[in-house]
Write a structure and sequence with these properties.
With about 350 residues, the protein is mainly α. It is built from 16 helices and no strands. The chain has helices spanning about 5-10, 15-25, 30-35, 35-50, 55-80, 90-110, 110-135, 140-160, 170, 185-200, 205-215, 215-220, 225-250, 265-275, 285-305, 310-340. The longest helix is centred in the last third of the chain and has 31 residues, at about 310-340.
Length: about 350
């Protein structure tokens, strides 16, 4: 049973049964989580027959490395979307966190302080956005769109529109060196996904996130602090966007205010492609990870085929549209089946 269905059933259940139903929401079905995996395999097989070098070890590492920033930011986006929200400020937060970090590193030479300031910057932006959305009950689209402009403009003003560089070589190596020839950034992605999935499925906070997305009224009746949960997911999203900003700064050897803006489509698109419902209440980090890989291989394959950037945008947008449409069609058929 999906979380939304379980919670709906809980409205008429006895207290003991309610507790059992709520506990069942943390057990995400593996088959549902892996629904996108066959499509990923087919995509890789098709592209491998159309291109040369797609499945070489160097290119596979390249795909993983190029997907790292999107993968990290998509973790936070997944938590937000699971509550039925949306965060359009992700790209600007990536830029602001990277610029704040690079500024401290280049001006003081203190790498640890730069990382701490970058993480603090992203988390605080997310916390403010979340407080406005949850406490003032403002539409997330409007708040995060405003935050996108304010944060991006403020970062550009403070950095004078310049790229802050160079950062230390040790920081740069984080994105190019690592055990087994795989960059540390990729290993960090794997670690973060494991931790985030455990938090989502094995903690009370993770279950509250799913409950709020499935039905905010039922969640409130069940004792969930809806305001606190809604605020926290945006703070978490800001934190992961900040990590993504640090990794991107490492990869670019510097930071600029607009460096994260082009990534918003892929970040949200990866979550949607993975099957996380935009209305909230259903999804997992495993699904998002598969969505990230799908977009990563799709982009890499199109580059190997020599497609222009605008052609790549059209193809990527088409896949995201199909994924969103398929989810809507699936829910429509379920509602028809229940009524019929």
């Amino acid at each position: 049973m999906e979380p939304s269905a379980a919670i709906s059933a809980a409205t008429t259940a006895q207290p003991g049964r309610l507790a059992r139903l709520r506990d069942r929401t943390r057990h995400v079905g593996w088959l549902a989580d892996l629904a996108m995996l066959p499509a990923l395999i087919v995509l890789i097989l098709v592209l491998s027959t159309m291109t040369d070098g797609l499945l070489t070890s160097s290119n596979l590492i390249n795909v993983l490395s190029q997907s790292a920033v999107v993968a990290i930011a998509a973790i936070g986006a997944t938590f937000v979307i699971l509550t039925g929200g949306i965060d359009l400020s992700t790209g600007s937060v990536i830029g602001a966190s990277g610029v704040a970090s690079a500024w401290i590193i280049t001006s003081s030479g203190n790498l640890a302080a730069g990382i701490a300031v970058g993480l603090f910057t992203g988390t605080m932006i997310g916390l403010v956005v979340g407080a406005v959305v949850a406490r003032l009950n403002v539409v997330p689209f409007a708040v995060t769109l405003a935050a996108l402009y304010v944060v991006s403009g403020g970062t550009t003003l403070l950095s004078h529109g310049k790229t802050i560089a160079p950062v230390p070589m040790g920081f740069i190596r984080f994105s190019i060196d690592g055990p087994g020839g795989i960059p540390y950034a990729v290993w960090l992605v794997v670690l973060l996904y494991v931790i985030a999935q455990v938090v989502l499925t094995r903690t009370a906070w993770g279950r509250r996130v799913v409950h709020v997305g499935a039905s905010i009224e039922v969640a409130r009746i069940s004792g969930v602090n809806v305001v606190r949960t809604g605020t926290s997911v945006y703070a978490v999203a800001g934190f992961f966007s900040a990590i993504a900003g640090l990794v991107l700064t490492s990869g670019l050897a510097g930071a600029g205010a607009s460096m994260g803006n082009p990534l918003l489509l892929n970040i949200v698109g990866a979550v949607v492609l993975g099957g996380t419902r935009l209305s909230g209440g259903r999804g997992s980090l495993l699904r998002t990870g598969i969505g990230v890989l799908f977009l990563g291989f799709l982009s890499n394959g199109m580059s190997l085929l020599g497609l222009q950037s605008y052609d790549q945008l059209i193809v990527t947008g088409a896949f995201i549209f199909l994924a969103a449409s398929a989810d809507g069609l699936f829910r429509w058929r379920r509602r028809r089946a229940v009524r019929g």
